[in-house]
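Lab notebook, design round three. We kept the backbone fixed and only want residue identities now. Task for the bench partner: fill in a sequence for the structure below.
Input structure tokens:
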């Protein structure tokens, strides 16, 4: 199932507007904080789909019956652009285990490229709920490759893909490359255009560079 979050009015649209704003992007702290805030909002929406059990909690005056999570999801992000977005999820799911994967494009002389893993740190995911988050979904290659790396470490019970801005092409590629069952896709906004250089238009630019500075 695909959930497009900006189709409903919410404060998410305010944060997304600021994240896209070329002038406000000059403030890296604000840019990172807004990514973090959107991660929190995504986490709250995804939390509504998780499993809960009623637990008795002792208060100063009695006993309260409160539904609490039966298990926290594993939070997986793609380095480095995903870190602020991931932090928002971690603020909400503060007891979660975390996973990190660093991928890169290995380019060939004919202009093609394939994805390679540079680094991966993944806990036990067998039968667990995993949230795979990355702020941008351009071609979909990085997220699909990271998902395959995840599956090489175990079989999750359910995977939530979360991205703030996706191209229509990348979203279609993702949906055609993952199972129909046991997955949900959460998108902040879907943009129609993807350039030949794999930039989303209007998009927001390079989330990693805007968060941490340009890399060599």
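Proposed sequence:
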């Amino acid at each position: 199932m695909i959930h497009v979050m900006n189709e409903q009015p919410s404060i998410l649209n305010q944060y997304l507007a600021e994240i896209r704003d070329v002038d406000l992007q000059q403030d890296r702290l604000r840019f990172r904080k807004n990514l973090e805030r959107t991660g929190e909002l995504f986490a709250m929406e995804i939390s509504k789909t998780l499993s809960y059990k009623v637990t008795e909690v002792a208060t100063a005056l009695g006993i309260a019956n409160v539904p609490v999570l039966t298990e926290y999801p594993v939070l997986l992000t793609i380095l480095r652009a995903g870190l602020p977005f991931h932090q928002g999820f971690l603020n909400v799911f503060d007891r979660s285990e975390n996973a990190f994967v660093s991928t890169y494009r290995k380019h060939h002389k004919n202009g093609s490229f394939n994805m390679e893993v540079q680094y991966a740190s993944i806990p036990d995911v067998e039968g667990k709920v995993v949230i795979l988050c990355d702020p941008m979904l351009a071609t979909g290659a990085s997220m699909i490759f990271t998902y395959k790396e995840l599956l090489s470490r175990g079989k999750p019970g359910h995977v939530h893909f979360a991205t703030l801005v996706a191209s229509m092409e990348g979203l279609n590629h993702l949906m055609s490359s993952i199972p129909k069952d046991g997955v949900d896709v959460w998108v902040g906004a879907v943009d129609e255009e993807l350039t030949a250089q794999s930039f989303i238009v209007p998009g927001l630019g390079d989330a990693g560079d805007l968060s941490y500075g340009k890399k060599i």
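Keep this in mind before ordering anything: The chain has six helices and twelve strands.
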